[in-house]
Amino acid sequence: MIGELVARGGPRTAAAGLPDPGRLDVWLVRRPRLETAAELLDLSELSDAERRRTASFVRPTDGITYASAHVALRRLLGGYLGLAPQDVPFVREPCPGCAKPHGRPAVAHPDPPLHFSLAHSHGMAVVAVSRTVIGVDVERLPRDETVEVCAPALHPGEQAELAGLDTEDRRAAFGRIWTRKEAYLKALGTGLSRDPAHDYLGADPHRRPDGWTLLDLPSGPRHNAAVAVLGGPPTRVVLRWLPPDALHTGGTVDPEADQHALREGGRETDPHGVDSDGTTTLVPDWGA
Amino acid sequence: MDQTTKTWVFDDLDDLDDPDYEFEHDYAVEVQPPSLSQLAACGPAERTRLIDDYVRAELARVLRVPPDTIDTAGRPMNSLGIGSITGLELQRRMEAVLKVDVNLNMLLRANSAAELVDCLAGQLGPEDDPHKHGGQRDHLVSHDLPSTR
């Protein structure tokens, strides 16, 4: 199935400008259905390595999720930077632990004009874009058996929070802790080379690492997602679905134009545009 | 985000065709690990075969697929479907059985399961095996150290 996904000529994306300082853009991406993915998805802008990776997955749906995430990332960053998606220059920052080039993925620039983070899991991807250092994670809700095996690897404070919960609540709580943790470790640049037991990312915000803001992202009944932001809370968080056709041949992403569309036709969850947790959430009508 | 909007936003995820969202197609795998004494006593080729069978079974259990469908040679862990949480589960299960330290980050970055099998085989031979080493920082697999957690 994935082997049938072929490169096609892709669109160029108009410059849309960088997000304002203090603003966090979060894009949720869903993959196309299995039976239509080969026809719809445009892999022409992916690198050879990305196309090889797409074809390497055992489960075709994982390959489609991976390809969707990377097409979305290139088109989004191309939109922000005014570059064609295939020309977005990715690099790996030095690892904070060993200085080898396997740290945070970044846009190649001596002083990157924006920061981004990408995560994908089982049909869903999340792209976060900001002017400050960020990390994002999304995970499918874990099985109870998995939580049972993995919980002892967490911080003692996190383990204590999980200990008193019933099965369903424990699965969800583990998913929230883990996505906050991986988002934070991605933002740090260490990834999981840092011991998962070292940092507390549990339910109490006051016990979490100083100098960072952790936000749980709405992600539906089957996933958990979170983003870590260096510094204080963003002044504005904009959460949007990527339009499905933005991944297709001929599709484009213009973050600023989409923002105009949001203001005109999107949903704002609160008349003042601010949720109870202090964030702004705007959701367009795509895919409903 | 209020509950109405949350439901509205995510209802459309229900029609995704991924069959394992709620694990309804789970394939239960019973894992029978080799004993440490058995691994230490046999020759290198047999040790590698036993560990390959074991790692294949653990991967199958974590991924919920039949063991004979696991490609141990040609795909990185991520392409098999191992993510950070399932990688952690795999790490902890193997450490508990084999009494070695498995570096989670290197496990997730391994080029193939065969790379993991080779590293485990090097650590689980006789006591005087020159491939054994302690300390997990620089190695995918290292011999179990006291009080690491």
Order of helices and strands of chain A: EHHHEEEEEHHHEEEHEE
What general form of chain B does the structure show? globular
Most extensive interface:
A-B, 48 and 40 residues
Q: Please state the average pLDDT score of chain A.
A: 83
**Range of helix content of chain B:** 40-55%
Report the average pLDDT across residues of chain B: 78
Q: What structural class should be given to the helix and strand makeup of chain A?
A: alpha+beta
CATH homologous superfamily caption of chain B: ACP-like
Number of domains of chain B: 1
Largest sheet features of chain B? 2 strands, antiparallel
Q: In CATH's first tier, which class of chain B applies?
A: Mainly Alpha
Strand content of chain B: under 5%
Q: Tally of extended strands of chain B?
A: 2
Helix count of chain B? 7
Largest sheet of chain A: 4 strands, mixed
Distance between the ends of chain B? 39 Å
SS strand fraction of chain A:
15-25%
Radius of gyration of chain A: 19 Å
Specify the structural class of chain B. mainly alpha
Folded structure, characterized:
The complex is a heterodimer of chains A (288) and B (149). By secondary structure, chain A is an alpha+beta fold. Helix content of chain A is 30%, strand content 20%. In chain A, the strands form four sheets. Chain A has a four-stranded mixed β-sheet, covered by helices on one side. Chain A has a three-stranded antiparallel β-sheet with strand order 6-8-7, with helices on one face. In chain A, helix 2 (48-56) packs antiparallel against helix 3 (60-81) and helix 5 runs antiparallel to helix 6. Residues 1-14, 260-279 and 283-288 of chain A have low confidence and may be disordered. Chain B has 149 residues and is mainly alpha-helical. Chain B has a single domain, classed as ACP-like (Non-ribosomal Peptide Synthetase Peptidyl Carrier Protein, Chain A), CATH 1.10.1200. Helices cover 47% and strands 4% of the residues of chain B. Chain B contains seven helices and two strands. The longest helix of chain B is centred in the middle third of the chain and has 20 residues, at 44-63. Chain B is globular and about 35 Å long. The model of chain B is unreliable at 1-15 and 145-149 (pLDDT under 50). The chains are: A alpha+beta (288), B mainly alpha (149). The A-B interface holds A 30-31, 33-35, 53, 56-59, 61-62, 102, 121-124, 137, 139-140, 142-143, 146, 149-150, 152-153, 178, 182, 191-193, 196-197, 218-222, 241, 267, 269-270, 275, 281, 283, 287-288 and B 1-2, 5-6, 8-13, 16-18, 20-23, 62, 69, 71, 75-76, 79-81, 83-89, 92-93, 103-105, 108-109, 149. Chain B: InterPro entries: ACP-like_sf, PKS_PP-bd, PP-bd_ACP. Chain B: Residues 128-142 have a biased composition (Basic and acidic residues). Chain B: Residues 49-124 form the Carrier domain. Chain B: Pfam families: PP-binding. Chain B: Residues 127-149 are annotated as: Disordered.
